[in-house]
Amino acid sequence: MTASRRVAVLKGGRSFERSVSLRSGAQVQDALARLGHDVVAIDAGPEALAELLASDADAAFVALHGRYGEDGTVQGLLEAIEMPYTGSSPAACMRSTDKVLAKCLMREAGIPTPDFRALRETSIKELGAAAALGRIEAELGFPLVVKPAHGGSALGVKFAPASAQLPGSMVGAFSYDGTIVLERFVKGRDLAVSVLDADDAPAGAVALPVVEAVPREEEFYDYESRYEIGMTTFVCPAELAPETTARAQELALKVYGLLGCHGVARIDLLLEQDTDELWVLEANVVPGMTETSLLPQAADAAGIPFDELTERILASAFSR
Ligand SMILES: Nc1ncnc2c1ncn2[C@@H]1O[C@H](COP(=O)(O)OP(=O)(O)O)[C@@H](O)[C@H]1O
Ligand SMILES: [Mg+2]
Q1: What is the CATH classification number for the domain harbouring 25?
Q2: 282 belongs to the catalytic site
Q3: Strands 116-120 and 144-148
Q4: What is the whole-number distance in angstroms between the Cα of residue 283 and the centre of ligand 2?
Q5: CA 228–ligand 1 middle distance (angstroms)
Q6: What number does the ligand 1 atom closest to the CA of 284 have?
Q7: Could you tell me the distance, in angstroms and rounded to a whole number, from the CA of residue 157 to the centre of ligand 1?
Q8: 190 CB less than 6 Å from ligand 1?
């Protein structure tokens, strides 16, 4: 039996992922209450820090996705007020959430991530970066994936089928972020591997069973709709060759260590159809905790019920 704590659940916020975060937060609150903790819900807004300070909480459970919640902002503020918090440190959050930085680090470390180029909106205006586009197109080929550097939930992710559609896709991605990633399109299967800290594991963390996101139909241009309810079904454990599962889990643990994640993270990968190669797309430091989210599904498949998962993530606040 673990100690009963007073826990502030940080959720909502103003990011594009507000609604998912509210659902994650609600699930976490219910679980914490069932576990016997004292719960204070905080919808992250202009009063969030004042509310945290007034809450007298022993720890903050970060259930904020996207901007501020995942990019290290909130974590830095929690350190400033010396309140223990779940999950990764500001530095690990910054490394993970910035896809350009994360991909550069992965490439340096020899972890396979699809070829890419980063473009800043200001470098187009101030350095004439658009003149490099032809080379980038030739190098990465079509379709070309265009995504905001700090994305989430596939928001702003577009597949440009040819040169003519590239400017439109770029404008779309720039509406989310001043920096975008142009990435080689990998045709294959969408996999996610969640990693959870574990005292008894040699690496200090374990990779949970692989989840595959299977699109109900191939909707090439409107990718985002795939993530809406019902457009994607999830299979866990994913039906893969045992060695593919092992490789995916090993890669996820490597990425988790490389980026310095703590507590929990979900690593997104692609399994390339033609080559059987695995490619790491990104690491999510505040994975969804809704009823249908990938992390709870993976934990469940590993025999870890939602409440135990929540308790283990809470414990990460006190093991830094
Ligand atoms: N290079 C790529 N090739 C093929 N599909 C991709 C590629 N990059 C992203 N996708 C698809 O878009 C989804 C979201 O991309 P991801 O990089 O995980 O960003 P985020 O989840 O932060 O929006 C992926 O799960 C994958 O299905
Ligand atoms: Mg992703």
Answers
A1: 3.40.50.20
A2: yes
A3: unpaired
A4: 7
A5: 15
A6: 22
A7: 7
A8: yes
Is residue 254 one of the residues assigned to a domain?
yes
Residues 248, 102 share a domain: yes
- Phi, psi angles (nearest 5°) of residue 176: -95, -25
Known catalytic residue at 98? no
3-class secondary-structure state, position 125: helix
The reply to whether 315 falls in a domain is: no
What residue's CA is closest to ligand 1, atom 13? Answer: 154
Show which of 149, 166, 184 is a domain's final residue: 184
186 CB less than 6 Å from ligand 1?
Answer: yes
Domain CATH code at residue 195: 3.30.470.20
By the 8 A CB rule, do 133 and 162 touch?
Answer: no
Is the same domain home to 102 and 153? no
Identify the H or E element spanning 206: strand 205-207
What is the residue range of 56's domain?
6-86
Q: Could you report the per-residue pLDDT of 260-316, keeping only the tens digit for each?
A: 999 999 999 999 999 999 999 999 999 999 988 999 999 999 999 999 999 999 999
Residue 246 CA to residue 3 CA, distance in Å, equals 35
Altogether, the residues listed in the chain come to a count of: 320
164 & 194 share domain: no
Q: pTM of the entire structure?
A: 0.95
**Residues 296 and 306: beta-carbon distance below 8 Å:** yes
67 is catalytic: no
- For the CA of 70, the nearest ligand: 1
Active site residue 194: no
pLDDT in tens, 256-273: 999 999 999 999 999 999
On whether both 50 and 179 belong to a single domain, the answer is: no
Percent above pLDDT 70 for the chain: 95
Tell me how far apart the alpha carbons of residues 176 and 293 are, in angstroms, rounded to a whole number.
23
Q: Is the pLDDT of residue 58 over 70?
A: yes
Evaluate whether residue 31 is within a structural domain.
yes
Pair (109, 123) in one structural domain: no
Q: Is residue 173 part of a domain?
A: yes
At 67 the three-state DSSP class reads coil
Reported as a single tens digit per residue, the pLDDT across 88-142 is 999 999 999 999 999 999 999 999 999 999 999 999 999 999 999 999 999 999 9
**Among this protein's residues, is 288 annotated catalytic?**
yes
CATH number for position 163: 3.30.1490.20
What percent of the chain shows pLDDT beyond 90?
86
Binned at pLDDT 50, 70 and 90, residue 222 comes out as very low
